[in-house]
Amino acid sequence: MLAIFYRARIVAGELRSETCGTTDLAQWTPMAQVSTLERSVVVDVGLELHRSAPPTGHVETIQTTGLLRH
User: Please, are residues 42 and 6 in contact by the beta-carbon 8 Å criterion?
Assistant: First the structure.
């Protein structure tokens, strides 16, 4: 699996689920609640990238052994 993470900023609009797309439910979850959710390990990788905020935005390959869910 290849995961690419982007840092983004919300500037306008409403969050909505995709019609006939790959996202069947879109919702915002407060950061404090994320650790209580059943989630894919890629969420934890993204959160760690956010916390560490590498100056270049690039990191070496990260090996994962946790739950991979699509």
Answer: no
Contact in structure between 64 and 42 (CB atoms under 8 Å): yes
Instruction: State what percent of residues in the chain have pLDDT above 70.
Output: 80
11 pLDDT band, cuts 50/70/90, is very high
Q: List the one residue out of 51, 52, 23 whose CA is nearest residue 35.
A: 51
pTM of the prediction? 0.58
Position 49, amino acid: L
Angle CA(32)–CA(35)–CA(40) in degrees, nearest 5?
Answer: 135
How far is residue 42's CA from residue 4's CA, in Å, rounded to a whole number? 10
Query: Which tokens sit at 45?
Result: 């990788």
Q: Output the CA torsion 19→35→70→48 (10° steps).
A: 110
DSSP category for residue 51: H
